[in-house]
Amino acid sequence: MTSKPIVLVFLLLVLIITSQFEWRQQIEADGNSVVSPKNKLTSEKEETVKEKVILSQERSIQQLNDLVQSLQLQLLHCRGNNNTILSSQNATSDEIPEVDDHDSIRD
């Protein structure tokens, strides 16, 4: 019986302590949100630099995508040429045994 009140008191203490901790974090966050003009100018410069870096990276990504597309087209072209060469070699190799067969028939 006495364990229930003790548990309730303990939970109440935990609740009070955690709520005090959360309030302190909010107060500290509100205090940090006040920015001096110098810090504001610095943060604006940082944002500008970040935007320039992002734009540069986007241009690089676009160039890489274009290069990948070009290489894929070259690969398809090479595969087409390779298939043409292989099919012409197969046709030539198919003709050669036929000639050999005709020669062996004559013997």
UniProtKB/TrEMBL annotation:
Residues 85-107 are annotated as: Disordered. Residues 38-74 form a coiled coil. The keyword Signal applies. Keywords: Coiled coil, Signal. The keyword Signal applies. Residues 1-20 form the signal peptide. This is Uncharacterized protein. It comes from Carex littledalei.
